[in-house]
Amino acid sequence: MSKPLVLIVMGSDTDLPVMEEGARVLAEFGIPYEMRISSAHRSPGRTAALAAEAAERGIRVIIAGAGMAAHLAGVIAAETVLPVIGVPMGGGALDGLDALYSTVQMPGGIPVATMAIGKAGAKNAGIFAVQVLALGDENLTVALRAYRERMAEAVAEKDRKLCLKN
Ligand code: RP5
User: Which of these, 95, 111, 122, 146, has the minimum number of CB atoms within 10 Å of its CB?
Assistant: First the structure.
């Protein structure tokens, strides 16, 4: 097994079905990743250590997903200078707005690249991580272009099918 380049952290096992969307993208691009559960408020010490030790383990990008006002991505970003991508979870009384605000509204100095709430955000976090890694890997750039072309072809195919029905 190659050493992981991307660390995916989530606040709870209940976040797994959403965060798996990001993992799926990384797998599709052949990027080795590691998935961990660590909470900013329930296990703050473990979370800080996980973030602080990530770079020396060879991690290049961190994806952090959490729900409610858990501020997991911000806590992780505070412990590392690696790029941190935040994914706010839906659900809870405010259905993800709380997580969105706590992730996106980082005070100046410690950025978190915040994605959309839920599965689309987790998927985009995976793609964004690949884009960051592609800065130093021409093969990944080629793969990203091919990914975009496949998306465009899928839209054209759906359009063709719709036109045939009408
Ligand atoms: C956050 O609180 C987690 O990221 C999760 O989205 C949310 C609820 O956690 P559970 O009570 O389901 O473990 O820490």
Answer: 146
pLDDT of residue 99: 98
* Residue 161 burial class via C-beta count within 10 angstroms: exposed 0-12, middle 13-18, buried 19 and up: exposed
Ligand 1 proximity of 43 Cβ (cutoff 6 Å)? no
Is residue 15 a contact partner of residue 89, using CB atoms and an 8 Å limit?
yes
The whole-chain average pLDDT of the chain stands at 97
pLDDT of residue 1 exceeding 80, the answer is no
Kindly report the protein residue whose alpha carbon is nearest to atom 11 of ligand 1. 12
26 with 6: CB under 8 angstroms? yes
- For residues 100 and 130, the answer to whether their CB atoms sit within 8 Å is no
